[in-house]
Amino acid sequence: QVRMVETGGGMVQAGGSLRLSCTASGRTFLNYAMGWFRQAPGKEREFVAAITITWSAGNTYYANSVKGRFTISRDNAENTVSLQMNSLKHEDTAVYYCAASSHSAISYTPREYTYWGQGSQVTVSS
Q1: What is the mean pLDDT of the chain?
Q2: Residues 6+ apart with CB under 8 A from 104
Q3: Alpha helices in 7-76 (DSSP H)
Q4: 86 near 26, Cβ under 8 Å?
Q5: How far apart are CA 46 and CA 36, in angstroms?
Q6: Measured between alpha carbons, how far is 125 from 106 in angstroms, rounded to an integer?
Q7: Parallel, antiparallel, or unpaired: how do β-strands 10-13 and 18-25 relate?
Q8: Nearest Cα to Cα of residue 113 among 40, 42, 24
Q9: CA dist list (Å): 118 to 14, 31, 112
């Protein structure tokens, strides 16, 4: 059984930083894309960041709203994907979900991802 367990999140003031981590078990995601999505109350789940099978600056993708502030990374040995969030804004407040695809190609839509974490609340006070 595949499980994806998120840690991190919480509450921070605007301008602060938080780090989310997601560890997968039950299978390896070495050859698959992984990503982060978020969902604010009353809104659809939206793409935040994604990373292909190897970590380098050229293999990461970000929503325009977080580019330059968030950094996605992965540790294939640990089957973990992380999201470092800096310069947080009030509008970043949402439940954040890690996700793993069943293929190596990056996708910006939730339906292309097969496995999901339980969700982590991130609240940024203004």
Answers
A1: 92
A2: 31, 32, 33, 52, 53
A3: none
A4: no
A5: 9
A6: 32
A7: unpaired
A8: 24
A9: 25, 22, 17
Residue 33 CB contacts under 8 Å (≥ 6 apart), including other chains:
50, 51, 52, 53, 100, 101, 103, 104, 105, 106, 107
Contact 17, 77 (CB under 8 A): no
Render pLDDT for 60-103 as a digit per residue (tens, 0 to 9). 999 999 999 999 999 888 899 999 999 999 999 999 999 999 88
pLDDT at 19 (0 to 100): 98
Residues 59, 51 contacting (CB under 8 angstroms): yes
Angle at 10 between CA 7 and CA 42, to 5 degrees: 100
Distance, CA of 122 to CA of 93 (rounded, Å): 5
Work out the angle at residue 5's Cα, subtended by the Cα atoms of residues 97 and 78, and round it to the nearest 5 degrees. 110
In this structure, what token pair is assigned to residue 105?
A: 């190609």
* Radius of gyration, alpha carbons of the chain: 13
